[in-house]
Amino acid sequence: MQHSPSGLSVPGPSRRTLLRGIGGAAALGASIPLLSACAGSAGAGDSKTVTLGSNASDAVPKKAFADIYAAFKKKSGITVAVNTKDHNTFQEQINSYLQGTPDDVFHWFAGYRMQFFAAKKLATPIDDVWQTIGGNFPDAMKALSKGEDGKYYFVPLYTYPWAIFYRKSVFQQHGYQVPTSWSQFVALCKQMKKDGLIPIAFGDKDAWPALGTFDQINFRTNGYDFHVELMAGKASWTDAKVRKAFDNWAEILPYHQDGAVGRTWQNAAQTLVSKKAGMYLLGTFVAQQFTNKADLDDLDFFAFPEIDPTYGQDTVEAPTDGFMVSKAPKNHAGVVKLLEFLGTPEAEQIYLKADPSVVAASTKADTSSYTAIQKRAYTMITGAKHLTQYMDRDSRPDFTSTVMQPAMQTFIRDPKGIDSLLSSIERQKKTIFAAS
Q1: I need a labelling partner for 345 at 20 to 30 A (CA). Which of 104, 217, 236, 249 fits?
Q2: In what order do the strands lie in the sheet with 299-302?
Q3: For the chain, how far is it from start to end, CA to CA, in angstroms?
Q4: How is 139-196 classified by DSSP, letter by letter?
Q5: Is the pTM for the entire model greater than 0.85?
Q6: Closest CA to 273 of 239, 301, 304, 296
Q7: How far apart are CA 5 and CA 261, in angstroms?
Q8: DSSP 3-state assignment of 335?
């Protein structure tokens, strides 16, 4: 997984060059290695092979998916030919990939990002699959899997919340209390700094973690409805509410790990593993970096603290990952069989056995083997009044990739330039959202 939510930077041209516009103008320089279907996929179009484009380039999820596909082959006789690309490259080049000759099935995300490609006719409806798997999922997951036309385009596999992670032993050693309010959180950051810790581990080299930080601060400051309006391009980035959210972020930015723009999320996680950092805001996939059982058992998390009592802690960011079908799969019958399998509790349990950092999307999956982290995650998600899908899943992917990712990095480097930055974001937003 990287259950990374977003399009990330790759060597070569800037993100702007790589993803000009999801509407069809993503022409990439010939020097860039293009994301494409399995080169001459053995058996592409063969009834015993389904090709699958995967962004699961990290070791843990790569193995988890391989286990699922092995179980599917044993059951059906159909081979899943997996085309794994670096997670970041996959996200950056997804538009060109889907407009070219993509694999039959591809990894993707619920929410706006799924609906966007469905609306562009770059994905195949899978209502036939949902006739079989529908009983395995709650209504919220069904809603997340539909396009704007009401048809199904997505099979969810797992979900996970974003929260603030910490080591229980570090909190016990220093007598820290879990903060529930903003003032308590700021005070804790100050105390951690005095105690020689990095208060908040932070790595934004790949440009998506900062999006999640903004989301938390924004919906705690301004509420869920404003988050939705802002992501949909309806609210203005020059609104005083947005400025207030950035002012709140600027207050805690000095307690974030220095040099974040040059550090990956994995490297930032290692500072929590080694007890050099006190806290880390990320999805539960951070647990993948805790490879020692004693360290993992020491890991815990809490919801981002309340900023405005009007909104409390009622919103949880819970991205949902799964699968979609490209516009013209070569083996449609095989694709249907694969997706029907992926929509079963059996497939989810195979995945979760190898990657216990997430929770099943199906209500029928066996949760008896859930770790303490998974149980807490499940409780947090089911107890939330509102669930968000993460900035670049709740908004246009071209806007988040070309505008918001570099803008957030600009803010991290120079929080004093926020007014001109917000004006620039709003200008670019109007242009992008005006495009078809």
Answers
A1: 104
A2: 198-201, 277-283, 162-167, 299-302
A3: 31
A4: HHHHHHTB-TTS-B--EEEEE--EEEEEEHHHHHHHT-----BHHHHHHHHHHHHHTT
A5: no
A6: 296
A7: 17
A8: helix
Q: Which amino acid is at 300?
A: D
- Ordered per-residue pLDDT tens for the chain, 436 residues: 344 443 322 222 222 222 323 333 333 233 334 565 654 444 445 789 999 999 998 888 999 999 999 999 999 999 999 999 988 788 878 889 999 999 999 999 988 889 889 999 999 999 999 999 999 988 778 888 999 899 999 999 999 999 999 999 999 999 999 999 999 999 999 999 999 999 999 999 999 999 999 999 999 999 988 998 999 899 999 999 999 999 999 999 999 999 999 999 999 999 999 999 999 999 998 998 999 999 999 999 999 999 999 999 989 898 999 999 999 999 999 999 999 999 999 999 999 988 887 899 888 888 888 888 998 998 888 778 787 888 878 898 789 989 999 999 999 999 999 999 999 999 999 999 998 5
User: Of the candidates 147, 145, 223, which has an alpha carbon nearest to the alpha carbon of residue 385?
Assistant: 223
What gap in Å lies between CA 389 and CA 110, rounded to an integer? Answer: 7
The structure tokens listed for 436 are 């078809």
User: Residue written as tokens 């843990």?
Assistant: 60
